[in-house]
Specification:
The chain is an alpha/beta fold and 413 residues long. Helices cover 36% and strands 17% of the residues. The protein has 2 domains: 336 residues, Peroxisomal Thiolase, Chain A, domain 1; 67 residues, no CATH class. It has a 6-stranded mixed β-sheet with strand order 5-12-11-6-7-9, sandwiched between helices. A hairpin with a 4-residue loop joins strand 11 and strand 12.
């Protein structure tokens, strides 16, 4: 619930504004550590609601209950792709107008030794606790704690409301491997992954050359990494005369956050769009020899790579993979946000994203209200807010009238 409040702070929304709204909540999770820990407690230390409170439905249900969010509500578990599957389901509630706002994400908490023991038994964990995505010395993944939430709206609604838009989800789709091309239940399937990629890009009629980078599942396992990388290479089919397909995985930075892994990848992609740069894949020494990088013109990102300059061509796009060991696969396509011409001028300001626009003379000024208990804390709050404001890109400040109005209200809370 605290992370939800942080989400509202970032979006510039108040708790009061969300109260009674048609907001859907979808939370993915995989870990049962909380239940393990609760069940081990002696009966005299358990409250009357200890059992129900340890069940998975609480992740989404408590958010909707506590903040009076009245849209669809789902807690789901499809293993490691749970949080991106939550995004998929959230997007559908916006498309069908079941909700006006969607809050979605995932959580993974490591509290109990049982989950580490079980994952180690099937050879999934790295003995030295490092996730070396696509590296020749990859030996399994490192488990990671994580919690991530995002807020989604229909693009037209977000533009109308003056929201800060990090990126645009062009499409997201999921499927299941079935048992095709699988030696056992937990092994990934190249056939299933290829079917998913084919379906999602065909459905959107998307130009494959626009995909600048793929945020891969990339757990750092000797079996899974080559299957995924070669599948991506074969599908996108970049020739040596074309720019390479860049791939990487946030798991090399954070470890594998399992139920929150997909949302971690999506948040990373959104930050890449926002800062127009891709950070390096950590823990990488040399390419796994089973990955046919030369054949498919694949390149693992090993240093920070900046986006090419913005032009009048289509915005840059990123693909995101997330796979569950039970066979669930999810792929999302996100692209840079570029405001339409009708949204390039708002409340006396021009939007800095629009090429060739200049600030017009009739500026609008904003009043910010600060309230603290002491003079010192008031000075500190004003100084911190000023630092934050100075760091914001001009393109954001120019078109953030609605955002600033909401922020000034929040400062009084």
């Amino acid at each position: 619930m605290l992370k939800f409040v942080h989400l509202l702070d970032d979006a510039g929304y108040s708790i009061e504004k969300m109260h009674g709204s048609r907001t859907s909540v979808h939370i993915g999770q995989f870990s049962t550590d909380h239940a393990y820990t609760s069940l081990r407690m002696e009966p005299e230390y358990r409250s009357r609601f200890h059992g129900p409170n340890s069940l998975l439905y609480n992740a989404a249900a408590r958010l909707s209950y506590h903040f009076n969010l009245q849209g669809p509500n789902v807690s789901l578990d499809v293993a490691c792709s749970s949080s991106l599957e939550a995004v998929h389901m959230a997007v559908e509630t916006l498309r069908t107008y079941e909700a006006d706002i969607a809050v979605c994400g995932g959580v993974n908490g490591i509290y109990a030794p049982e989950s580490v023991f079980y994952a180690s038994n099937i050879g999934a964990l790295s003995p030295d606790g490092r996730s070396r995505s696509f590296s020749a010395d990859a030996n399994g993944y490192a488990k990671g704690d994580g919690l991530g939430l995002i807020m989604l709206k229909r693009l037209s609604d977000a533009e109308r409301d003056g929201d800060r838009i990090y990126c645009v989800i062009r499409d997201v789709l999921s499927n299941h491997d079935g048992n095709e091309d699988k030696s056992n239940f937990v092994v990934p399937s190249a056939a299933g992954q290829t079917r998913l990629l084919t379906d999602v890009y065909k459905r959107t009629n998307f130009d494959l050359q626009r995909i600048f980078y793929v945020e891969a599942h990339g757990t750092g396992t000797p079996v899974g990494d080559p299957i995924e990388a070669n599948c991506l290479g074969q599908f996108f089919n970049r020739s040596s005369l074309e720019p390479p397909l860049l791939i990487g995985s946030v798991k090399s930075n954070l470890g594998h956050t399992e139920g929150a892994a997909g949302i971690a990848g999506l948040i990373k992609a959104a930050m890449c769009m926002y800062h127009r740069a891709i950070p390096p894949n950590m823990q990488f020494t040399s390419l796994n020899p089973r990955i046919e990088a030369q054949r498919y013109n694949l390149h693992v990102v090993q240093h920070s790579i900046h986006f090419p300059p913005s032009t009048d061509t289509a915005p840059i796009a990123i693909g995101i993979n997330s796979f569950g060991m039970g066979g669930n696969n999810v792929h999302a396509i996100v692209e840079e946000y570029r405001p339409s011409a009708k949204n390039s001028i708002t409340n006396g300001y021009t939007n800095g994203h629009a090429n060739g626009c200049h600030q017009i003379e009739n500026k609008q000024y904003f009043v910010f209200l600060f309230s603290t208990k002491t003079r010192k804390s008031l000075k500190d709050q004003v100084a911190q807010f000023n630092q934050w404001l100075q760091k914001r890109p001009t393109s954001d400040v120019d078109n953030d009238h609605a955002f600033f109005q909401r922020i000034s209200q929040q400062l009084l809370l």
